[in-house]
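Hallway conversation turned thread

IA: we were arguing at lunch whether anyone had actually written out WD40 repeat-like protein end to end. Turns out nobody had. So, for the record, here is the sequence (1066 residues) and right after it the structure tokens. Reply here if something looks off.
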Amino acid sequence: MAEVSGPSSGPPLRTTFKQVSSFEPLYTGGAATAVSSDGKFLFAPVNDAVHVTSVQSGKTVARIPNDLEDITCLTLTPDQSTLIVASRSLALRIFSLKFSVDENEEQDLKWSLQRSIPKTHDAPVVVMKVDPTSTLVSTGSSDTCAKVWDIRGGYCTHVFRGHGGIVSSLQWNMPPSSTQKINGSSSMRQIELLTASIDGRVRIWDLRAASGSAGGSKDKGATAAKPVATLESHFSVVRGIAVTRDGKRIVTVGRDRMVTLWELQSKGSSKKDKNANPSWQSVEVITAGESLESAGFLDDEDTFWTAGAEGEIRFWSFSRRGVIRQQPGGRFASGTVQKRAAVTSNEDDEEEESDENETRAITEVHYLPSSDMIVSVHADQDVVFRSASTLQGVRQLAGFNDQIIDASLLSPINGKSDTHLAVATNSTYIRVYRLGAQEHTVDVLPADSGSEEGHTGLILCLDKTSDGKLLASGGKDRTVRIWAWVPQTVSANVLNVGDEDEEMGEVVRPGEVNGNNAAGNEEYGWSCVAIAQGHTESVGAIAFAKRPAANGQIPFIVSASQDRTAKVWDLSTLQRYIDQHFTSKSTTRTPLKLSSLTTQKIHEKDINALDVSPNNALLLSGSQDKTAKVFTIQYQAPSKSNHHTATASLKLVKTCSGHKRGVWSVAFSPSDAVFATGSSDRSMKLWSINDGFTCVKNYVGHTNSVLRVRFLPNSNGLQLLSCASDGLVKVWNVRTEECLDTLDGHEERVWGLDCTQSGEQIISGGADGMIRFWQDWTQQEQSEALEKRQEDVEREQEFGNLLQARDYTNAVALALAMQQPRRLFELFKSVDQQRSHGDDGTNATASMLSDAIQSRTKSTNGVSSLRDPALAEVLARAGVLPSAPVPTSKQAQPANASPASITGLEAVDQVIAKLSLWQLATLLTFVRDWNTSVRTSNIAQTTLHAILRFHSADTIIKAFEEQASGAAQEGALPASKNAYNNRKKAPADLGNVIDALLPYTRRHYDRAQRILTESAMLEYTLANMDAVLGVDEDDKEQNGLMNGNGDVDMQSVVSSSDEEEESDED
């Protein structure tokens, strides 16, 4: 390897990166969600707004803002026309929705706020349900009250009290009118609301019976209304209620792990029985084996689903009283739940299992009959779309990534192009994004919830092989797992119960395990192919060997743990094992148990990072003990000489001390004999291997702990990447220690950092859950800068030509289009200096205040006191000049001067009068900046005077409104739009402009008033001196000349001047 100080060769440095895309939160949890009936849009709360996400692309197509409080619940009407949102402000906001197709044949959504109902309850709304007609919405609150609202009118129609606690679930029972007539009921449609609460009871309310008493005061309605039936079966919170369309069957599920089936009892034949209220009878109580959160019937009115703490959906038959379909590869199908229930016997195990359930539990289920899909929403904010016929996963969206601990790009298909992104997200699962796919989906490792391949503790670190085909993960479960892209066998595991003409199967009773898996279609996916067990503490760092062996296989992997030891694991037989046991025809897919070749204690504190040199000869480690250590790796592949058993050993070469705090990251240069370290002391260091492991460079720039260090690929080791707890990613020049670019896209610390193999794209992931993609923009920026310089030169030349030709009309328009306030100021200044207010021009502020000065100055004997030359000179030096006399035909005028003009030229006045809205807002922004300085305030006040003279207040308001919307940029030249957009980083609205203009304008006016007062005192003093001393003859003669009286002896003046010149020569 060459030294870093050697001659430069290779590609040019990448100096600019631009964010091109990102994976942002789609759903932050905590409230209900909604899915459009066609399954194309997901409505989910993200903090205090509702984000509408395209399920296919994964992009946010609309953001519907609510009030400033967090959203507690939302729902979508069945006709897809209205979205109803409740928040902690106790308000209910109703939005109208309109779905359309844009010009690109993609579905678009437009929304508008229709109504806001304040304080709907005394406590936040936790559940909502819209009736099948999209007319009424029921709300359940923490105030133990349920209400019914008219959606169109926005008023409350019914109030139901009497619950034993928080209302936990709602459901409507509104059988179609035709069904009721067949059943012999009255012609009036049955309208019932079922409510459940934490007391375990389900209450049935008849809205027709309560309508008469609840129409006026809600208190009276609440007192009079009583449930027509109360269903008591559960001893814990009821979270799901399912009712068939004909209203004859009810299923209730709760956190007591019970499923209760209810049937409506037929009325008797007597008149008394016919008038009696219908009665509901519990026909079966089934143990579900998990805490349940949701239930609902399918269209056949016999099959219903349940979902809960295990994170799986199961289908049950009401008539058969048992499970008929389970998720393929799930915990129930594999028997994991049943086995765990038999093994778990102590409280500690139960608490650990409860923590795992919290992350994988299903909180809500949506059934989409039109698309035959069933959607599950999980506690970890994942949204999974499944086929309702097979329960196979179709698509998965990651609503929120929580804290991203590590990220790694993968190339499983050809090893050259990065097609997948693996992310560790503070959980026991690895999320794998498919990059570049038209349809957005996220894979979760392991794919099957019932699989034992995954980690049982939080994942702390990731690493990949040099070709990106293998992925390694280490976690708190003290294991290292290796994942590979291998053929998958889709397990059918679908049990059906039906008539003879349907596919038959046995009913799976709770507690039974079905191990028959029918082979499905073959597809590729990620599977755990090897497991390394042996550490006694959490595994915090792993590193693959960089150079493949002669057969193309990766020889070993190194892991380090909080137990202060490092282990070398043999991978020489891994590929052969994969080829034999992970094919589409394999009956067993058990991961390979790796063997440890050596174990050595290498640090005194936790080990944070590992890296292997490009030639597999050295191992580099970083620890909380503030040191980085270099070890030699002696690895021998299996051969005859070592009895076909691989061996390895580690030997310490050097301990590198220099950091003041723990070392978080280490990295070898891919081409030079150097390595980099990043530390909590906010610095990075570059160490030379050939110079005795001395520190040769120090990089300082981050304001917090440096968490990751990477050499930029395809840069010959000349560029370095770093990310830190300050939320920044930095690009460095290795030789000059210069920071070339800073990428600011995260609000929290950045843990994950990786690059594509070409080095053209950087991926960063932070504790804020954001994943940012940064594209190399160096060439584009250089091209844009070159084009801009050429255009600026051309425009400067054009601008100079216009000034030379005194074509001020076009010059003003060009200066505005070029977004150059200084050029425009100089233009206005040159125009203003052509006024006929004096031989040397005049001050614009003085000319504007001239009338006020003249009116404040008293004349004596019809002669203005400002005609005193001494006073005029004093005022001129102070910046205030008297108004010029009206010019006569004998007075010479400057070329093209327009004394009656506001700016100095009528042509310029006309330009200001005819400004477009965008130009008007831009010019007012320039005036605001000019007005902040005394040196430029005169031109600012003159221009402001012209603007207010020619444009009304409504026009100015409209100009800033269009500028804020970005619709008024048509007047800008193409190259100047970048400058315009840069100025919009701090958008200037009319209020800000006025707030900035008023204090400075008042200051300028006070200054003029002060000068005027001082000039009056001077005049007063001179007048008193004349009164005391008398008027000199010379003063009389001078006053006469000033007043136009008397003659001047020119010969005497000439003689006097000659005498003075001779005296000066002597």
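OS: looked through it. The mean pLDDT is 81.
IA: good, adding that to the notes. Residues 289-400 form a domain with the Methylamine Dehydrogenase; Chain H fold (CATH 2.130.10.10).
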